[in-house]
Amino acid sequence: MEDTETTVPSDADEVEQHPCPRCLAEPGSPCRSRSGAVSGTYHTGRFTKVPRLAKNLRVPTPADRGPGQPWRPGTPPPAPIAPDTPSADIRIGYARCSHLTQELQSQLDALAAHGIPRDKIFSEKISTRIRVRPKFEAALEAARQIKAHAPHCRVIFTVYEMKRLGRDSAELTALADHLTAHGILLEMLAGPIAGIYDPSGTGRMLFGFFAAMAETDRETIRESTLEGLNAAARKGNHGGRPPVITDDMLHTVLRRRANGESVEDIRPDLIIPTGKRTGKSPSVASIYRALAGYEQRQRHPEAVEQAHADFVALQPST
To answer: Which positions are catalytic?
Structure first.
């Protein structure tokens, strides 16, 4: 006598016997999110129709329903994947910093330590204010191509933290929706929502909140920088490198040259007070440039006064 195996229906099977009153998913289909992808959890109005699940706070969508992948109405759960079908996670890494003086190595090391091969890590030094970022677009295209050729694999777009993607909340949300629509998961290694982004209700809400925080942070930095520059300008510091030849040094050169000394004889007695060459003597070329500038100001004093007046007029009033 053969034993008959009784198949116990899973939570998902029982939930999907009912239509969803929120997203209007038909029986046999998982719930869908607002972005049009398979939702990470079933909607409350649907799973509460199953008595034994009615008191649960959430019922997750099983992995075999493809959460985060494009949603198809009225389709039964997919057939089991063949054992020889590759199903490993494939990650594409992206690293970015805004300025040439900043370093990328810490981000590259973190992505590599997370198991991403170097040939699948894209990096660039470019500001998020620039809309077209070549390496970023190349990373997105690589992720889309891999997903198209390996639909059974989980393709994960990984960055070190959210602000590496951008600091504009609308742009960040649109990017997350774009990845979800193509069945690509978004992962962040650090930050307040580290881990794989959940496009369902709570995850989407948190992502939107911290995206808005990133945009606010950028505006705060910008305003503080401009305020600091304006304060420095009001004190006479207009940025740039400090002059090698100060007014006192120029006065010394003029006085001693009037007494018949040469620039070469005067140079060893001049000491640079600030900057990278503090404590050293200026070059002969620097002294001659300062003298030429002094002579130019003496010949055209009205032009110098006009330039100063124009500059003062451009400064913000206090």
So the answer is: 98
